[in-house]
Amino acid sequence: MPVRLPLNSRKYCLGIIFCLAFINNFPNALGNTQVSAENSDEAQWLSYGRTHDEQRFSPLTSINRTSVSNLGLVWYHATGNRRGMEATPLVEDGVMYVSTAWSRVIAMDAITGKQLWRYDPRVPGEAGRNACCDVVNRGVALWQDYIIVGTIDGRLIAINKHTGQQVWSTQTTDKNKPYTITGAPRVVGDKVVIGNGGAEFGVRGYFGAFSAATGKQLWRFYTVPGSADDPVEHPELELARRTWSPDSRWETGLGGTVWDAFAYDEKLNLLYVGVGNSSLYNRAVRSPGGGDNLYLTSILAVNPDTGRLVWHYQTTPAESWDYTATQHMILADLEILGETRQVLMQAPKNGFFYVLDRETGELLAADNYVAVNWASHINLETGRPVETGLGEWSQENRMVMPSVVGGHNWHPMAYSPQTQLVYIPTVHMVYPFRADPDFVYDPGTLNTGEDWQTIGEYAPTVTPEFCSPTRLTAWDPVAKQQVWQVPFDSGVNAGVLATAGGLVFQGTTDGRLVAYADDTGEVLWSSNVGVGIMAPPITYAVNGTQYVTVVAGIGGAQGGHFTKLKNQNSGHVFTFALGGNTQPPTIGKTTRKVQVPTDPLDEESVQQGSKLYHEHCARCHGVQAASSGLYPDLRTSNSGVHSVWQKIVLGGMLKGTGMDAFSDVLNEDQVQDIHAYVINQAIASTTWHRKLLETAVEAVCIPAEWLAD
Hints:
Layout: E1 11-14, E2 57-58, E3 71-78, E4 90-92, E5 95-99, E6 105-109, E7 115-119, E8 141-143, E9 146-150, E10 155-160, E11 166-171, E12 186-188, E13 191-194, E14 206-211, E15 217-222, H1 236-241, E16 262-265, E17 270-274, H2 283-286, E18 298-303, E19 308-314, E20 329-336, E21 339-346, E22 352-357, E23 363-368, E24 375-378, E25 385-387, E26 398-400, E27 414-416, E28 421-427, E29 431-433, H3 452-457, E30 470-476, E31 481-488, E32 496-499, E33 503-507, E34 512-517, E35 523-528, E36 538-542, E37 545-552, H4 556-559, E38 572-578, H5 603-616, H6 618-621, H7 639-643, H8 645-649, H9 668-683, H10 688-695, E39 700-703
Helix pairs in contact: 5-9
């Protein structure tokens, strides 16, 4: 049953294992594809958010509060993938297009699930090293006869939607730098817009527009300046450069990557872009002379024809906590103080829900939707957060909330014009920020300025009390308050769909798709498919029959750390309809067995290995070598793996699977130290301390007084 959980509860959640930062609507009558915020064909799902206002609301009503009890599985499709699955499928004229991990694309019959074609861009396995948060892909774009997808290695590719054959391919990033693309492209008229990721590794953020017909770049917008003195690429950077001190760490690239959210207002002809975090979290080191550091963590309103900035709003000036503004944005018309306002709504990672006038950028409301301690409130006159000092970690260790996962991450929220509520997949955790006093920029590894070993080894020494680290929160953007909330035990949330049938659909980590009443949060229906879900569902209709589809498979930053996979992570596409009675597939259980060499370990080597492991390995294989199961749990490595440890880590023996060679940052002695640390953790895995960490991997509660200054 849904519960109302107060935001000022005396219990807050702490994720034991750390998480990494990551982790348009032009009237288009071209071809037979037309996407509009106002009149898109209600039976289709033609764009990432269904319409370019990104509301993720379907007008279909056949599946409703009364009929949903008769909803059942009608088909499923095994993708052959066991990494993270975050995609929103598109459906046009009875054909479904789905992207999977490694940027692959599948076309299926939307009625039967029969595969029509499969496209593999053949991303090199070693490119996975540059993905902070798994080799995921959130979806494709549709333009005329083309399906357009971004790839982990930075390409933008058009595929013929009828044949699955590549039409054009454009390299949008510098292949010599650790850029990635995981987000879904957006089509605005005859342009396709895409950004990229990689801030934590030291890149300079930008997004750009390309010809949908040819892939030719039309314009590029850099989100941060390139240096203190060199000429800027476009005039908006003159303003930005004045907000960075001359002694800023320019060599880090500064970050500001645009790795997810876009929205588009066709009447205003404004493209809205969410900008991410810096490459160096610690602002005292990043920009020692101070400054807001534009355009980090900002919402940009851009003219899509020219790429020129119309207005901007920075959610977290001089951000220091990976509080990206790349989270989902929704456009809607709301009545505020008796006046209908055209608004943009966002729940970014910093914990505050923003309502902006989408024509002018005027701040209309900003209220915390999760517990927050880094700021007391947002000053509506200045638009700036009022910081409390509890988040200042450059000089002393701090427990900060929201955590680096944020109050809301990439998982799309939804808005219902019927209830006028926003349904947000919220996260309720605390994070231990620890500064690295000896930080040195090191290309090819994480450069956030944190003391990874200290963070990795942090754990409470008391018996944990479990709480609800993730929740589905219904938020009233006009009343500025929570209406209802459903708590979950898992540290991984899932995207949301709202429908005119009075329903809200969301998946769960334990493999259920659930339908809630949109006004109360009451559970009305649930189906267990056996594979964990974090992707957002969609709904569509073919020949008068309404379907609900969701992509299943856990992964991403949270899926790699904040859960324990009980079943094999077998990626599937599941589709439901009224009267469906297909049985879901049988999914095997995960098995683990610790096998370690018996040779004595050198204590100094183990200590050195701990530091190196948390700098280079923990982002995939888990803090303290405790993996969720998405990546190999190194403690369970067999004798064969132990015998070729150096060849794997330095020689790239398994780079085709995503385990690149680390010979550019590690030597043989260092790899031996890491090996010793992993063996030590395997031996310790049956102790009380290890059991605490593995059971509490989904987050624990700690008393609020622990967070006092």
